[in-house]
Here is the input.
Amino acid sequence: MSRDEMDALGWDACDIILVTGDAYIDHPSFGMAIIGRLLEAQGFRVGIISQPDWQNPDAFKALGQPVLYFGVTGGNMDSMVNRYTSDKRLRHNDSYTPGGEGGKRPDRSVIVYAQRCREAYNDTPIVLGGIEASLRRIAHFDYWSDKVRRSVLVDSKADILIYGNAERAVVEVSHRLAKGASFASMDDIRGVALVKSAVPDGWTELHGDDIEASDEGARASANTQSVIRMPSFEQVDSDPETYARASRILHRESNPGNARPLVQKHGDRELWATPPPIPLTTPEMDGVYDLPYARGPHPSYGDAKIPAWEMIRFSITTMRGCFGGCSFCSITEHEGRIIQNRSEDSIIREIETVRDKTKGFTGIISDIGGPTANMYRLACKDKKIEAACRKPSCVFPDVCPNLNTDHKPLIELYRRARAVPGVKKVMVASGVRYDLAVKSPDYIKELVTHHVGGYLKIAPEHTEAGPLSKMMKPGIGAYDRFKQLFDKATKEAGKKYFLIPYFIAAHPGTTDEDMMNLAVWLKKNGYRADQVQTFLPSPMALSTAMYHSGKNPLRAVRKGVSEEVTTVKGLRQRRLHKAFLRYHDAENWPMLRDALKNMGRADLIGNGKHHLVPTWQPKGTGDKGGEGMRMGKKHKGQKFLTKGIHAPKALMPKSRAR
Here is the structure.
């Protein structure tokens, strides 16, 4: 990270310099650390420039000119998601910065960093990576500017973009560059995007205007090289319905077993995206996690606390990927839907390393999991079926009969983990996919008996069929079945544990009535949400296509017959939906009373236990001046914010890549 460190190593230059918007934490929970250690293991000299002053090109000269390239990433989160709330308000903190200080990275970090690298050393190649680049690799709707933007590769003027989990691709690109290869010759590497002047000779274009028709064309052209022609940037920019069609094409071409290259015109240039990377094998995953990480923040940060590090330093990653395919979530888009597993031995070795080397360890492993807690070693029963499948989810509308849902390997892993000498308890803090867990009552019993610490978080996201069908989430009945098994296991274990369900407000397909019904369900079940999530349209998500276009890309998108989707865009309506989730907050009562009256549901206003909001208003709340107690008296026995489950902030979920 400094010239002094280079001198101590005897380096005259770095082969590769990685620029990141995060503080540098040398731990496998941070993408920059994985890529740095992986390249080091391949024999490259790697430097890190962390959170540089983006207004000064000299900050990008701190380690000199790299021999091969600058690798640029915004960090573990998209910089716009990191900096702004779903209501487009500025966040004043950043979990990936020393002291949690906000403002240490620019908006659209990938573009800005790439520009400064170019200003620092004009002739040095630039390689983009990380989730911000991954989710913006094609023309995409940008919520914060409320417009469709070009591929970040085009806007940044970088040389190549590597998307998804990029271990294989970054190694291949690096070695080819070291041998003097051109970027133009790298269009055979999976998981990359680059710009071409035209589609090369020998390729058959299959037009993606009707994706189902393109599948027929693919079968007819089985012996030829086929590339899917997506609608151009100009077309998706001018027509939201065409944008929804492009989103459908992208997600239909996401299975590494059958995906074809995509090409999308940007002006007079062609953006070429190769098929997604082949998932890492278990030995390859072990190799990544067994690299010699220092397992902590760089010493230059001193004693400054970095919130993201404090959260994960005693946690263990078991797997990658998610076959849930939730339409609002970026995990599948970035990590893929095929689960990549570590071996038990590798996981146990890391637990022992945490025990022996991580400062402050008290015997508690804070989490063992990944994007979900319970997809470890779950996969399609038939590799041929898996390779041919184009379904966006293995569990929606129901769990696929071809999916192996056996939780025994995970149960055995839990038992080995908690048997490690010096380990007192192994917690499961990753979200449990409850529609899978109900397939294995033994897993629920194991979880409750040994791995829950008072609360367990799960994410039904809603109770109503309309929004759930657009989210690709199971009906609330699956939650009810899980709760029955959870409560039964809790009682048998002699524990007093609670479920913390999480819900999304204002998702496409959600009406005011849907949110009202959810609020009634919450009150009936005694839930008072401490923190709630309003839908945030992340780049490239299917839900974002719904939000922007008002069409449903989960079904065929064709002029005149596309399925319409209710969207919630106005700030007032978005706040109303959020207010329904926090029906117990007196600040929201005036808004809710007005809404209920307009909806013809004034019967839910009153001071009885079956009413949603009371007629009275605490002094100083609701209208910034307060209505006092003019509207009536507090109902006897009503204890707001004290009864039911009120989760402390420490138990809120880790930031999900949505």
